[in-house]
């Protein structure tokens, strides 16, 4: 597959490092209600965001899995 940048391919997939994923989830939490919430991650890929979503109910999918 043709590369278009350091971590990006022509399909526009971008793999986020754990440090950035953790910061994104921490910042996002302040906007969430405290209960009865289901988060849906449609581009889970390798699941880097998932460990930080554990306090919540969530579904994770990869709409275009590799391999």
Write a concise keyword list for the protein shown above.
alpha+beta, 67 residues, 1 helix, two-stranded parallel ribbon
Structural commentary:
This protein is of the alpha+beta class. It has one domain (1-67). Helices cover 18% and strands 12% of the residues. The chain contains one helix and two strands, in the order αββ. A two-stranded parallel sheet has the order 1-2. The longest helix has 12 residues, at 18-29. It starts with 17 loop residues before the first helix and ends in a 7-residue tail after the last strand.
Please summarize what this structure is.
Helix content is 18%, strand content 12%. The chain is of the alpha+beta class.
Number of domains: 1
Estimate the helix proportion, in percent.
10-25%
Number of helices: 1
What spatial form do the alpha-carbon principal axes imply?
globular
Strand line-up of the largest beta sheet: 1-2
> Distance between the terminal alpha carbons, to the nearest Å?
12 Å
- How much of the sequence is in beta strands? 5-15%
- Structural class by helix and strand composition: alpha+beta
Mean pLDDT across every amino acid position = 80
As a whole number of angstroms, the C-alpha radius of gyration is 14 Å
Order of helices and strands: HEE
Instruction: Report the uncertain regions.
Output: none
Biggest sheet character: 2 strands, parallel
The tally of beta strands, per DSSP, is 2
């Amino acid at each position: 597959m043709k590369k278009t940048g350091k971590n990006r391919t022509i399909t526009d997939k971008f793999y986020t490092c754990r440090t950035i994923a953790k910061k994104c989830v921490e910042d996002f939490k302040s906007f969430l209600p405290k209960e009865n919430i289901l988060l849906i991650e449609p581009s889970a890929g390798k699941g880097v965001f998932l460990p930080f979503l554990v306090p919540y109910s969530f579904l994770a999918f990869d709409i275009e899995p590799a391999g």
